[in-house]
Design brief:
7 strands; mainly beta; seven-stranded antiparallel β-sheet
Length: 97
Amino acid sequence: VGGVENYTTSSWSEDLRMDKSGRFSWAKDSGFYGGSGGVGFAGSNSSPEASGSYSIDGYIIQFKFDNGRVETKSFVYFPSENDFFIIDGSSYWIPSD
C-alpha cells in the first residue's frame, strides 16, 4: 500500500496606507506553494498599487480610485482599541509610528 502526499499552502497580504488628508494607496500580494506525488509547484500574484481618496461616514468607507472606480465598504473602528480597524470583514493593523 502506497500513499501520495498532497499539500498546498497559500498566503496573502495587503498594504493599505491612509493619510490624514484623505488620500490612500493600496497594494495586494498573494502566493502559494504545494506538492502532489513528489512534484512541487508554486506561484504568486501581485496587484498593481492603486491610489485615490477616501471618506468615512459612520460605518461606511468610500474609496474613490484615481482611475474613476468607486467602492463602498463597511467600516468598523473601535476607539478604545486604536490599533486596528475592520473593512468588509478584514482586519487592518495600525502601526504605532
